[in-house]
Design brief:
CATH topology of the largest domain: Rossmann fold
Low-confidence stretches: 613-631, 670-678
Structural class: alpha/beta
Bound molecules: adenosine-5'-diphosphate, magnesium ion
CATH class of the largest domain: Alpha Beta
Mean pLDDT: 85
Number of helices: 23
Strand order of the largest sheet: 11-12-10-13-14-9-15
Largest sheet: 7 strands, parallel
Distance between the termini: 41 Å
Radius of gyration: 27 Å
Helix content: 25-40%
CATH architecture of the largest domain: 3-Layer(aba) Sandwich
CATH superfamily of the largest domain: P-loop containing nucleotide triphosphate hydrolases
Length: 678
């Protein structure tokens, strides 16, 4: 009898996970069995229904079955092995090409029946699969089921996740943190059932039930955390006020006038800073609305009052970028700015820590590392952060411990007022609706894939002018060799097309250091064209980039496209965004039209929401719920309301849920890069 696993045990307790795998999983913030169970699929492959070749849809992932009627093996011009197979099914024939899989020649048998899963393409009237999954029909490895696809990292595949999660599901004793009362009242399934069906849904109904429960749990956790955080903030014994100081000298030093939205936000912040109650303010403004200068005004006031400020960025690249900007703006005003990142020389680091502790450094910029214990400030009064790093309650406690009771969060995510109160219940709001005058709007053009070359002609034109560009490939779906191949192919194509210009690729499989070094070279202008999967950081500011081409633009969410597009148009030059639409579906065309018509993030997200409606079922988990995608909440408004009510009840009657489990869940909200769901 296998001993039962406990959720809080290390993942190494799962069969097949050793220290090496565990290290890789840690990159995904998975360290315990519980974390593994919480690693929900990003999407599913619905492999239940077999299509006959007459029903095939070009470009669609398809499950087919047929009898193998012929098999031919040869080498391609470039020396790769190629096996060409013809299959017969009730509607006729379909074809398969297997590249680089010579062993299949021995395994595949003429006259036998096989099940095939992959993307089907129409080539010269033939229906063709390239490197699909293939198994003998009816065998025990039959492909027919709903299969999860997981977010992966270097060296961990979906297949492994399936194995481990199956083991964890079969061996873990899951205790439900919700009492029967809550579960019954809200008609929620048991937690164990939810885990099983979120990973391996029996059918659509059970998937929905499980998903509902998972989302409810997340939102309830969050709502309770919010309430605790509010309690902490309203604690009258803290005094977060700083002496008043005049910011006019800073405003005078700027080469421009603030927009009216910026003026209002700065005024709100000034009032917060001099009041006793800790500031906890969210400044929301579209990409390019000029949030940084608002943050600078807050820092300036703090520093003039004799206090210190810290600026936290989600990544090192962004921290460096902020450092450059703030140094340039503040050094002339006699303000000392420093950067603290990992990998600094020990002596350099020691000096920075020392000067932070004795107050010589007035503004310290860095990543989450700023929260580490050995970083001690003399008089820290303000911490500024990005929405990706909304603090969990625990981190807030750390900050208050360091003296920084005032928190300012910058966000480009548009969120409707009705939801704002529930989502950011413990924060005050300043919304910047104005854009700096004189911006040249980005020209967005939608081109069908047949006309791709037009987009690349435009790229060539920009490169020749000395400008830089981005080419965005659809996200590498870590498991999916074919899409990895397509990003790689795209990269090779770009290198061929733009010979003479330095072209590099950045993608999710690179480790942190590799990514940073590529981004840094791009920022310095050494790399001229950057081929990328979606990992381009929100907030990255390379003014020399004037053109972006997004391949398979129809596969991205509109909010995502908007964020991506915001990477260009950051100088006084005209910028361009080409959206290459590879789909001929009407809805895709409509979404592309929205992108070319609107430049305002708010308008885009509303239009997107209307278009999507509530319709997409299996695809709903697509964007995952552990990313920091606030937009998802549009969809979960009803559950959010319930969770809010229940959180109020729990605050009054803690018996309703398990206290220890609640604390653990809340701790998890604040950990890691994107476990902070909101
Ligand atoms: P975001 O809100 O996306 O973070 P930034 O703060 O990076 O935007 O500002 C984008 C650009 O606009 C920067 O180059 C900044 O100097 C400039 N900018 C900010 N405010 C103004 C303004 N009031 N007038 C003109 N340019 C401005
Ligand atoms: Mg910014």
């Amino acid at each position: 009898m296998t001993p039962k696993l406990r959720p809080e045990q290390s993942v190494t307790a799962v069969r097949g996970i050793g220290t090496q795998r565990a290290e890789r999983l840690a990159q995904l913030d998975i360290t315990t069995v519980q974390d593994l169970l919480n690693h929900v699929p990003v999407r599913y492959k619905d492999k239940r229904e077999i299509r006959t070749s007459g029903e095939f849809v070009e470009g669609a992932d398809t499950l087919a079955q047929g009898v193998l009627t012929s098999l031919r093996s040869r080498r391609t011009g470039s020396g790769r092995s190629l096996i060409e197979v013809r299959m017969r099914d009730p509607d006729g024939f379909f074809y398969i090409s297997f590249f680089n899989s010579p062993y299949l020649e021995r395994q595949l048998v003429k006259g036998a029946e096989y099940t095939v899963y992959g993307k089907v393409q129409f080539r010269n009237g033939l229906r063709l699969f390239t490197n699909p999954e293939i198994v003998p029909a009816g065998g025990d490895r039959d492909l027919r089921r709903i299969e999860p696809v997981y977010r992966c990292t270097a060296g961990v595949t979906t297949r492994e996740f399936i194995k481990w999660i199956t083991y964890a599901l079969d061996n873990t004793e899951v205790t439900d943190w919700l009492s029967d009362t809550v579960r019954r009242e809200r008609k929620l399934c048991e937690l164990g059932t939810a885990y099983r069906n979120i990973h391996f849904p029996k059918d659509r109904h059970w998937y929905q039930v499980a998903r509902y429960r998972m989302i409810y749990d997340q939102l309830l956790t969050y709502q309770i955390a919010l309430r605790r955080s509010r309690l902490l903030r309203d604690d009258a014994s803290t005094d977060a006020s700083i002496p008043d100081a005049d910011i006019t000298p800073f405003l005078r030093s700027l080469p421009f006038e603030l927009t009216s939205g910026q003026v209002d936000a700065v005024r709100d912040i000034e009032a917060d800073l001099v009041s006793r109650r800790p500031m906890n303010r969210l400044v929301q403004g579209d990409v390019g609305s000029g949030k940084t200068v608002v943050a600078e005004a807050a820092i300036y006031k703090t520093v003039q009052a004799g206090r210190q400020a810290a600026f936290m960025a989600p990544t090192e690249i962004l921290a460096r970028q902020h450092f450059q900007k703030l140094s340039a703006d503040f050094e002339p005003l006699g303000i000392r700015v420093a950067l603290l990142v990992s990998g600094m020389r020990a002596q350099e680091r020691r000096q920075i820590l020392e000067e932070t502790a004795n107050g010589i450094i007035q503004v310290l910029i860095g990543t989450h590392a700023l929260l580490q214990e050995d970083v001690v400030f003399q008089r820290l009064s303000l911490v500024i952060t990005d929405e990706q790093h909304r603090f969990g309650v625990n981190q807030r406690r750390t900050l208050v411990g360091k003296g920084a009771a005032n928190v300012l969060v910058m966000s480009a995510t548009p969120i409707p007022r009705t939801l704002a109160a529930t989502v950011y219940g413990d924060m005050d709001f300043s919304v910047i609706r104005t854009m700096p005058a004189g911006r040249i709007p980005i020209i967005t053009r939608v081109v069908p894939k047949e006309a791709r070359s037009k987009a690349y002609q435009a790229v060539l034109h920009e490169l020749k002018q000395g400008n830089q560009g981005y080419v965005v490939a659809p996200a590498i779906e870590q498991d999916d060799e074919s899409s990895l191949a397509s990003a790689e192919e795209l990269y090779q194509e770009m290198k061929r097309k733009f010979r003479g210009f330095r072209v590099e690729m950045i993608h999710g499989r690179l480790d942190k250091a590799e990514k940073e070094s590529v981004m840094a070279a791009f920022a310095r202008g050494e790399i001229r064209l950057l081929v990328s999967t979606v990992v381009i950081e929100v907030g990255i500011d390379v003014p020399g980039a004037t053109i972006m081409v997004i391949e398979n633009a129809e596969r991205f969410g509109l909010a995502q496209l908007h964020q991506l597009r915001g990477r260009v148009g950051r100088s006084d030059k005209q910028s361009y965004c080409y959206l290459i639409n590879h789909s001929n579906q009407e809805i895709a065309a409509e979404r592309m039209r929205i992108m070319s018509e609107y430049t305002d993030g708010f308008a885009i997200s509303e239009a997107d929401y209307e278009l999507r409606g509530a319709g997409d079922l299996m695809g709903t988990m697509q964007h995952g719920f552990n990313g920091s995608q606030i937009l998802n909440l549009f969809k979960y408004e009803d559950i959010l309301t319930l969770a809010g009510e229940d959180a109020d009840r729990v605050m009054a009657d803690p018996q309703l849920i398990d206290a220890a489990a609640t604390d653990a869940r809340i701790r998890n909200l604040g950990a890691g890069d994107n476990s902070d769901i909101l």
